[in-house]
Amino acid sequence: MTELSDTKTADDSRLINFGAQITVAFTLLAAATHLASNRLDLVYAIVSTALFAIGFALLALGFWNGIQRSRIDEVTLSGLVAIDKTHVTTSARNRLWAAIVLQIVVGVLFASLRPFTHQAFGLLVPTFGLGIATLWGSRFAAFHPREQR
User: CA distances (Å), 98 to each of 36, 37, 115, in order?
Assistant: First the structure.
């Protein structure tokens, strides 16, 4: 198994930072949409749906990469989705899951403040965070090498 360390490669940090930046932008858009009443609702719905679609594609790509990687490594689902501490560094895991939790909280909060409006589209956005985490896990998580038989 590759040793886990808190040193990050450029690609490793770039993907995590991208997920964090999108989360901050989504949070700001949700707040602006709430404050602007009906003026930004359509924009919010389109952005939320686009983030869902991108997240779904990232999730599929992450699973595809995990399947390809499973030919040489013992890939686990918990390592693939960046949950298991034995496969993923603590700092990376915390940053990835903080973005997902924030997306869930923001989506639920603003959808509950204005129920039955376009704010409900924000509930789709955590799929983006899961997609980033899965893609990251498929590329950077450390797994045991598969035994040759």
Answer: 27, 28, 25
Task: For residues 3 and 119, give the distance between their C-alpha atoms in angstroms, rounded to a whole number.
Answer: 43
Q: CA-to-CA distance for 71 and 64, rounded, in angstroms?
A: 12
> What is the distance between the alpha carbons of residues 68 and 85, in angstroms, rounded to a whole number?
22
For residue 53, CA distances in Å to 7, 39, 107 come to 31, 23, 16
pLDDT confidence of residue 26: 97
- Tokens standing for 53? 């679609």
pTM: 0.87
Distances (CA, A) of 69 to 15, 73, 74, 108, 132: 19, 6, 8, 35, 17
List all residues 6 or more positions away from 86 whose beta carbon is below 8 Å from its beta carbon: 4, 79
CA distance 82 to 16: 11
* Residue whose C-alpha is closest to residue 74's, from 84, 131, 14, 127: 84
Residue 149, pLDDT above cutoff 80 = no
